[in-house]
Design goal:
It is a single chain. The protein has eight helices and nine strands. With 218 residues, it is of the alpha/beta class. A seven-stranded parallel sheet has the order 1-2-5-6-7-8-9, with helices on one face. Strands 3-4 form a two-stranded antiparallel ribbon. Strand 8, helix 6 and strand 9 form a beta-alpha-beta unit. It comes from Trichoderma guizhouense. This is F-box domain-containing protein.
Length: 218
């Protein structure tokens, strides 16, 4: 497996230890996607084999090779775990120096319906900069909810000199909200693109070279 560059896991029940072994055995890994299968545990509800933060910390071992990343745990992910720490929702990807394309699922990060213990992402510019690498060229925000100001925070961060390579942002928005995001990002030289159903269900097409070239990201 030493030469494997791309791994996509659908409806996976791989546990944290096996994930670490898999990633560790692929020193040239450039593209990784994980779609969780939240397994049922009898009358006690559902569970996930590991947290988002655990997966991200594991992937940091590929900081010098990983270019494209998508982790999907589902919009109700935080409901499957009894107790979660802030780092379980979203661990920092700052050290992934080569990362170019990333999908971030914003739902369950500061929605009006969330429990008060669920952290907001991004809380502010410092939080965004702490979490994401400066190498990004394309960034996807999946999840649309009330009072989320992630686009404004991202634009402010870019205006301050962060994320100098960022060219395109995908958003799950429509109507006036989407138009506002387009205007905000255009003011800092970034293209805003709406996520359609196909891309929402499967991020791989918009991580492909041909798709990125169409938007000037390759």
């Amino acid at each position: 497996m030493a030469r494997i560059r791309s791994i996509i896991l659908f409806d996976s029940l791989i546990d944290a230890t096996s994930l670490w072994r898999l990633i560790d055995s692929c020193p040239e890994l450039e593209h990784f996607e994980y779609y969780a299968n939240c397994c049922e545990e009898g009358s006690y509800g559902y569970s996930v084999p590991f947290t988002w933060g655990q997966a991200q910390r594991t992937l940091c071992s590929r900081r010098n090779t990983l270019k494209r990343l998508n982790l999907v745990f589902g919009k109700d992910y935080h409901l499957y775990l009894d107790e979660m720490e802030p780092e379980d929702y979203l661990g920092s990807l700052r050290d992934l120096d080569k990362l170019e394309a990333l999908w971030v699922e914003t739902t369950s990060f500061g929605t009006d319906e969330d429990d008060a213990t669920v952290p907001i992402f991004p809380a502010d510019i410092d939080d965004l900069v702490k979490m994401l690498p400066e190498s990004l060229t394309c960034l996807g925000f999946c999840g649309s909810h009330n009072n989320w100001d992630g686009i404004e925070i991202l634009a402010e961060a870019i205006d301050e000199g962060h994320f100098p390579r960022l060219e395109m942002v995908w958003v799950e928005q429509e109507g006036e909200i989407f138009e506002d995001s387009c205007d905000i990002l255009a003011s800092v030289g970034v293209v805003c693109v709406p996520l359609d159903e196909k891309l929402y269900d499967h991020f791989t097409p918009c991580l492909g070279d041909e798709y990125l070239r169409n938007f000037g990201c390759k």
